[in-house]
């Protein structure tokens, strides 16, 4: 089931970037995300009740679920929706593809896993690709581009932290179906509390565009894709599961070219290829580099 899960995640998440963009407008970003994960949590809880799989996190799982709600189901998307205000949705997806690199670095920091030479080489290559991709805009000193890039990188780091928490929860015996439901509820409540504290206007856009994007993001984009992805995290580990993010930009940038008028440029193509090559190198290093890593060890 590993390959079907990968394909499901890539196709759904590769297309959710444009849906995120469609939610920008009259409704505050934080409330749009709260609506999304509130609806997704309701769907998951209904499924758990109907299938008699209800389980309440206890003990050491509670702070991890709360952390997952904060990282995966609130801050992550707050960052990316703010990034989408100034970046094409496809470009935000390219930044997100660096999650595999951040996952490897966090696994080293938190769990002491050795950073192999191919991981370091892939990280450098991937970050160089991002620099090339954004260089034409950043060279012109566009504040919006720098700001959007910073938001996107922050969102990717939050996502990677959430991956680590999910892996630890599955090690405790909790399935993604359960932790996602409670994590999404936690993320919704955190965002609602922030909206109240910040005095944000509680509005809702009743248009078909906003409503359709909300349903797509909540059900396929959250209930289905997050469950599939975090199942991969449990099976393969956070580093290898994030390999799915390497393929997101292909889907997202092509949708962006049609829907947003994103234009492919030579630096853009080169940057995309470098970023993807860096991610691939993390997981499929050439034999000579694997041999060098073993000799060094």
Notes on the protein architecture:
By secondary structure, this protein is mainly alpha-helical. The protein has helices at 2-22, 29-50, 61-83, 89-96, 99-111, 117-139, 143-171, 176-198, 208-236, 238-241, 248-259, 266-283, 287-296. 51% of the residues are buried.
Short key terms for the protein model shown above:
297 residues, mainly alpha, disordered C terminus
Largest sheet: none
Question: What overall geometry do the principal axes of the alpha carbons give?
Answer: globular
How many H/I helical runs? 13
Q: Which regions have little confidence, pLDDT < 50, spanning 5+ residues?
A: 292-297
Provide the succession of SSEs: HHHHHHHHHHHHH
Radius of gyration over C-alpha positions, nearest whole angstrom: 19 Å
Mean model confidence by pLDDT: 82
Distance between the termini: 33 Å
What is the SS-derived class? Answer: mainly alpha
- Percent of residues in helices: over 70%
Instruction: Report the β-strand fraction as a percent range.
Output: under 5%
Topology, number of strands: 0
Topology:
Blueprint: H1 2-22, H2 29-50, H3 61-83, H4 89-96, H5 99-111, H6 117-139, H7 143-171, H8 176-198, H9 208-236, H10 238-241, H11 248-259, H12 266-283, H13 287-296
Task: Kindly summarize this structure in a few lines.
Helices cover 79% and strands 0% of the residues. By secondary structure, it is mostly helical.
